[in-house]
Structures are given as structure tokens and as C-alpha cells.
Amino acid sequence: MGQARHTGTRYLVDEPLRVATPLIGQPLASPARRLAAIVIDGVIVLVPTLLVIVLAAGVSLHLREPAAIAAMRGGLESPDPQVRHRAQADLARFFAKLEAPGLPAAVKAAVEEGEIDRAATLLDGYDIEYNLSIGEGEHPEHPLRPKQIRFEIERVIPKPLRAASLYGVAALYFSLFTASRRGATPGKRLVGIRVVHLGGRRLHLLEAFERFVGYLHIPGTLGLALLDLRHDPNRRMGHDRVAHTAVLRVLPETAPRSSSEVPEVEQQAAHQGDALA
User: Fold this and answer.
1) Which residues pair with 28 in a beta bridge?
2) CB 193 within 8 A of CB 247
3) What is the CA radius of gyration of the chain?
4) Which of 27, 154, 164, 166 is surrounded by the fewest CB atoms within 10 Å?
């Protein structure tokens, strides 16, 4: 049956997990510890992710709308009425193209008719609310104050760059730390758990990245994938199966146990592992 793997057709086999003998019998991480680790890691990743998104928005504005960003950076606050008027004209064009919430319909109509000076005049006294959403969902619909325009920052970032900004930091964070010698992100280290490859070796960076991508199956199944923590005997979820990993508790180093001190079930598991090796 082993030769069938190298042909175009594969066949169902009764192949069990192949676990390195030193890993057999080690305690699994509890669901509570795993959840705590992902919450801690999420908080850690949030700040640099927001910084990258803001940086990406700034770069996009500089390249695509330099006049608009110049207006936001000081043109509206200039004591010179002519400079302020030009800044309002630039922002009228920009917000009309963006269809920014709070933009008066008269301003959009004036821009479309080419009456930029009138559009700029209509913006006198208006404030800008800067808003950033890190996801693809709608912005919270809290009411704008009178004479306030909402600038949704992420809308100026091209979608591919937005996706890279949103997931890139997390991908690097989880991949690099999981592929490290400790096999644990800072969140996992804080709660005393680690990721191990079932073969007993250190994960390659690509395997760690595949494991990170595997996290997407949790929202993809509306959270039902979390039931694997209860049903799977080794508490392995989809991303663990993709990368051939498990999550273990990190215990203080102790002296090796003699065979008489090892529970019978662990001895049987170890013998099975030796037989499969």
C-alpha cells in the first residue's frame, strides 16, 4: 500500500499518527490556555498592524493624492485665506471621489459641474473625522456632528496592499515565532504552552506559515472547528493537521522517570511509536 502514494491515485489506509517517541505521554495544552494565548498574541499584533495600515495609507495618499494629504497636513489650518481656500478645493475633489460620509451633496454636485471654487467655499467651517477600520466590515454608524466629514482611511489603500497590511504582520509574527527554537509565540510562552512537530523536529518556516494560514478555518466554519479541541484525542485542530503539529504544556524540567514510574498507557504508546519508527 505504501507504493500507492507515489501514483496518481491514493487509497484509504489505516495509517496512524507517527509521533516521535520523546513526545509521547507529554501533557497537551488545555483549551483555556490556547484561547488565552491567542488573545494575548492578538493584542500584541494589533498595535504594529495598525501602524502598518496607517503607513500604507500615508504612502498611498502621497503617491495618488498628494494635494489632498498636503491639505490635511496644514493647508486647512493656514492663516492665509488663499492657501486655505486651495486646500478646501483639493479636499472637495478628494472627498467627492471618495464619497465620504458627511460630504454635502451640494459640494459633490459643484465638483461634478467643475465649479471647484464654489465647492471649496461650501466646505468653510467643516471638520474632518479620521476613522480607521482594520477589517472589511462596515464602520460603526455613529452620527456625525454638524459640519463634519468622515475620512475612512483604509479606503485609500488598494485592496491587495490592504490585505498585505492587515495579515502581513500577523503572518510574520506567528510564522517566525512558531518556527523558532522554542516553538512558541510570546502569548504561548506566557501561558506555558508550545507548538511541536509530531516528528520531533523543529518546524520549517514554510510549515509555520502554513499553520498560520490554517487559522482561517476557524472563522470559515463559524467557530465550529473549535470543537476539535474536545473531540480530537490530541486536541489537534485543522491548522495542526495541516502542519503535522500538536500543542503541549511546557513543564519544568525534571529528572527522567524510570520505567516503573511511567504510566502503563504511556509505555504502550511508546512501544507503538518504536514499532512505527
Assistant:
1) 248
2) yes
3) 28
4) 27
Check if the beta carbon of residue 162 is closer than 8 Å to that of residue 56.
Answer: yes
Q: Quick one: average pLDDT of 41-69?
A: 88
Longest dimension (CA), the chain: 90
* DSSP structure string for 43-102: HHHHHHHHHHHHHHHHHHHHHH-HHHHHHHTTGGG-S-HHHHHHHHHHHHHHHHHHT-TT
What digits encode the pLDDT tens for the residues 223-242? 888 888 888 999 999 999 99
Say what the pLDDT of residue 60 is: 84
Which residue type is seen at 66?
Answer: P
For residue 142, what is its C-alpha cell? 455613529
Is the torsion defined by CA of 244, 246, 252, 254 positive or negative? negative
